[in-house]
Design brief:
Low-confidence stretches of chain B: none
Helix content of chain A: over 70%
Order of helices and strands of chain B: HHHHHHHHHHH
Largest sheet of chain A: 2 strands, antiparallel
Oligomer: heterodimer
Distance between the termini of chain B: 22 Å
Family (chain B): Belongs to the binding-protein-dependent transport system permease family. CysTW subfamily.
Low-confidence stretches of chain A: none
CATH architecture of chain B: Orthogonal Bundle
CATH topology of chain A: MetI-like fold
CATH superfamily of chain B: MetI-like
Number of helices of chain B: 11
Protein name (chain B): Spermidine/putrescine transport system permease protein
Distance between the termini of chain A: 16 Å
Keywords (chain B): Cell membrane, Membrane, Transmembrane, Transmembrane helix, Transport
Largest interface: A-B, 101 and 94 residues
CATH superfamily of chain A: MetI-like
Pfam families (chain B): BPD_transp_1 (PF00528)
Membrane topology (chain B): Multi-pass membrane protein
Number of helices of chain A: 13
Strand content of chain B: under 5%
Number of domains of chain B: 1
Shape of chain A: globular
Number of strands of chain B: 0
Chain lengths: 284, 266
């Protein structure tokens, strides 16, 4: 067979020109000084931008972003693992396909609209507050339901849950049910079997799912913009804020740190668990 | 081989599944319900009160309609180009021996670049190069967002293309182009159509990149974002509800179609 150089050329060019090159320039420009006269950069080496990340609580936004990503990814696993199990082992063929479609739709509908719609449920006069008062759980509407970290985490789970479910589903497809049935025949209860047989066999899916959600949350902005409180921030929103005063080097320095974290995690995850191998049986 | 779960585990597993689906679907479906309520106060309408008046009112929302038009043009162009590029990428993947995994990751990695960073980087580079922000710059930003999804969908559809088919055609003297045109293309056509629809929806609903890359005419999500924060109105619910419904319906059509194809081919 001939080398596929011609076929590679067009998509590779798009990825390099539109994706990689701008990101490399961002990294390079993050080490330049800011020119407040032109609102652009001066061609001289400087790490001042990285210094100012340490100021004004910017560092804490990084930490809270990673915290949100960790918490969201963990909760998503708790929900997505049983969901994948139900799809693959419990549901009949029709229900299984219906569940797969229901988990596919979120990828292709608006994150903006879905985040926004939580306002109707969580607001002071929203469904949940009305319900809680009718049942008599509280006398006054709960204020922390909306424009709070609680609302942000709920919105993030709703946005990125499918990113956890599909890798787990793919890994479950490779588990031999004989091993699970054998464990049950030998007297293991369901939970024991799940913990000692199924879970270890699906580690790659679990870690991939965790990683996907973590990375998506780390780069998210819409959920915080729609549902966060007054001072709420996340790295992507902080970049928007910095760009309001056109401080390019600072915005680029924050971006560079974030890219290092995101690509570091994805590449480490790939090296350990072989992310690409999850899709291996496809297109062969 | 049957794994006996027992009643309690089944209940726990289904309960968590339902919780997950409720978290995903309850809010947008509620919003959809609210959009049929004649009252200005958000709430579900009584069945006798259901109205389309906010959808009719959309006709006079010129800013939303102009933005929708712009978004549709951008989504169409993005879908055409992303599908073509992803087909090339998938063909290259099939022909590669070494470097397959590297190529797979190369196409997939743009998915993980945060939208704000990608949008900021591209818009800065383009404006430095003297390119004015327009529909074209948004398309440039949306291509890499849509390609990973389109690539995976097309790659999956390549499972139908058995190597033996191509070898047989080769033995019978078909040129490489004839092999592609007469064998590969018809077999992967369902994948191409799915990839096209998915790319279209991804572009139509994309917000963070368009926020940086849109020119004078904003895309629909950018305009919606502004209006959502300026105080919600029933027409916003109607526009959001309609876009959510149409997007979901497209995915369902793709799912049903692939199910039907599976049935037919066995």
């Amino acid at each position: 067979m001939k080398t596929p150089s011609l076929l590679l050329a067009a998509p590779l060019a798009a990825i390099l020109v539109l994706g990689l090159a701008p990101l490399i320039l961002v990294v390079v420009w993050s080490f330049c000084a800011w020119d407040s006269a032109t609102y652009w950069i001066k061609p001289e080496f400087s790490v001042a931008a990285y210094g100012s990340i340490l100021e004004a609580g910017r560092w804490s936004v990084f930490l809270s972003t990673l915290g949100k990503a960790f918490l969201t990814a963990s909760i998503c696993l708790v929900i997505a693992y049983p969901t994948a199990y139900a799809m693959y082992f419990l549901a009949g063929p029709r229900l299984s396909i219906a569940l797969a479609a229901l988990l596919t739709i979120p990828f292709f509908t608006s994150y903006l609209i879905r985040s926004f719609s939580w306002r109707l449920l969580l607001g002071r006069t929203g469904v949940i507050n009305t319900l809680l008062q009718q049942v008599g759980v509280t006398d006054a509407p709960l204020d922390w339901l909306l424009f709070s970290d609680f609302a942000v985490i709920v919105g993030l789970i709703a946005s990125y849950l499918p990113f956890a479910a599909f890798p787990i589903l793919l890994s479950m497809r490779r588990v031999d049910p004989v091993a699970m049935a054998a464990a049950r025949d030998l007297g293991a209860g369901f939970w024991t079997m799940a913990r000692t047989v199924l879970l270890p066999l699906t580690y790659s899916g679990v870690f991939a799912g965790f990683l996907f959600v973590f990375v998506m949350v780390a780069g998210s902005s819409t959920e915080v913009q729609m549902l966060g409180g007054a001072g709420a921030s996340i790295v992507s929103v902080m970049i928007n804020d910095v760009m309001r005063v056109a401080n390019f080097p600072l915005a680029f320095a924050i971006s560079t740190l974030m890219l290092v974290v995101v690509f570091g995690l994805v590449l480490i995850g790939d090296a350990i668990f072989g992310l690409a191998s999850l899709f291996e049986d496809r297109g062969q | 081989m049957i794994v006996r779960e027992g009643t309690t585990p089944r209940i726990v597993i289904w309960a968590l599944t339902v919780v997950g689906l409720a978290v995903i679907y309850a809010p947008p479906l509620y919003l959809l319900g609210v959009s049929f309520n004649p009252s200005l106060q958000p709430g579900l309408p009584r069945l006798s009160d259901v109205t389309l008046k906010w959808y009719e009112a959309l006709g006079s929302e010129h800013a939303l309609i102009a933005a929708l038009g712009q978004s549709l043009i951008i989504a169409l162009a993005t879908a055409v180009i992303a599908t073509a590029l992803s087909l090339a990428a998938a063909l290259a993947y099939r022909q590669l021996h070494r470097g397959r995994t590297a190529w797979f990751l190369t196409v997939l990695l743009p998915m993980f670049v945060p939208g704000v960073i990608q949008g900021l980087a591209l818009s800065t580079v383009l404006s430095r190069a003297g390119v004015k922000a327009s529909a074209l710059t948004v398309i440039a930003g949306h291509l890499l967002w849509a390609m990973p999804f389109a690539f995976i969908v097309i790659l999956t559809s390549f499972a139908a293309v058995k190597r033996t088919y191509l070898m047989a055609a080769d033995d019978l003297g078909a040129s490489r182009f004839r092999q592609f045109y007469d064998i590969t293309l018809p077999l992967v056509r369902p994948g191409l159509i799915s990839a096209f629809i998915f790319s279209f929806l991804l572009s139509l609903n994309e917000f963070t990149r368009a926020f940086y890359l849109a020119g004078r005419q904003n895309t629909l999500p950018v305009v919606l974002f502004g209006k959502m924060n300026a105080g919600a109105s029933p027409t916003i619910y109607a526009m959001s509800g309609a876009i959510f419904l149409v997007s979901s319906a497209c995915v369902v059509v793709v799912a049903l179609r692939s199910l039907f194809m599976q049935r037919r081919t066995g």
